[in-house]
Amino acid sequence: MSATGGSRTLTLPDIAARKGKTPLVCLTAYTTPIAKLVDEHCDVVLVGDSVGMVLHGMSSTIGVTIEMMMLHGKAVRRGLQNALMVVDMPFGSYEESPAQAFRNAALVMAETGAAALKLEGGESVAETIRFLTARGIPVMGHIGLTPQAVNAFGGYRVQGRGEDAERVLRDEMAVAEAGAFAVVLEKIPEVLARRITQEVAIPTIGIGASAACDGQILVVDDMLGLFGEFRPRFVKRYAELAAPAEAAIAAYANEVRERRFPALDHVFGDKPRGVSGGQVA
Ligand code: KIV
């Protein structure tokens, strides 16, 4: 069943109209095959800068480049027909000035065909969000735990507990007033996520921010259980694909070493199949 109930690509007004209604379903994707799998079931597909950690083995998202985002953005675009595609602006590509952000954002949009871009940060990026949205670049905000600021936060800690809630609230208001069409709330307490969701007019999309949000997002490799060791509390694993994948690789390795693969079925004969009875083709 398509997330739109048909084959139409979702638009920004469709997403905005879901505020307070059926929760928005969002996942990341970085490649065409995964984009094809998630497309029918998701409203928003994010080409997240988590690609650096998930596919490229980086220890944080800090080293992700605009070229990486464009390469993966183009790959994902080829796999989508239904979901709205959002691409992350990587660290260093938008913080310097609104003009720098516009230059890079225009490049990413033109190259990838993204419908919108995501920027991390609250009050500090509000001016840039206003600049971009006024010039036709839709922006999704991202507040709370913003992984590009992992060094400033001193780790991937829950944000907005106790008195810190006021700071996260100010970030939310700044992003919404600047014109973001939706906002990701990452790793904040449920009580704060609920308050923010009630107070802002734009949809909130939670990751580690409770079911009080207007939608949810997860990193697709996390929810598929493609990592053995990485198990953050906010991720529910809907499958455990790492173990069967490894078992299949081990079976292949054994069969190659024992000359059991390739077998007759996988081998070409001298003549096309069917020309001389049971001859392999
Ligand atoms: O980069 C990413 O995948 C993200 C989501 C986790 C929200 O920003």
Keywords:
single chain; 281 residues; alpha/beta; eight-stranded parallel beta barrel; 11 helices; binds 3-methyl-2-oxobutanoic acid
Structural account:
With about 280 residues, this protein is an alpha/beta fold. The protein contains 11 helices and 8 strands. Strands 1-2-3-4-5-6-7-8 form an 8-stranded parallel barrel, surrounded by 6 helices. Helix 5 crosses helix 6 and helix 6 packs parallel to helix 8. The longest helix is centred in the C-terminal third of the chain and has 16 residues. The model has no long low-confidence stretch (mean pLDDT about 95). The chain binds 3-methyl-2-oxobutanoic acid. The site of 3-methyl-2-oxobutanoic acid has 11 residues, from loops.
Please state the overall shape, judged from the principal axes of the Cα atoms: globular
Question: What's the total helix number?
Answer: 11
| Strand coverage percent | 5-15%
Bound molecules: 3-methyl-2-oxobutanoic acid
Q: Main β-sheet, in a few words?
A: 8 strands, parallel, barrel
Q: How do the strands line up in the largest sheet? A: 1-2-3-4-5-6-7-8
Mean pLDDT: 94
SSE order, one letter for each helix or strand:
HEHEHHEHEHEHHEHEEHH
Terminal Cα span:
39 Å
In brief:
This protein is of the alpha/beta class and 281 residues long. The chain is built from 11 helices and 8 strands.
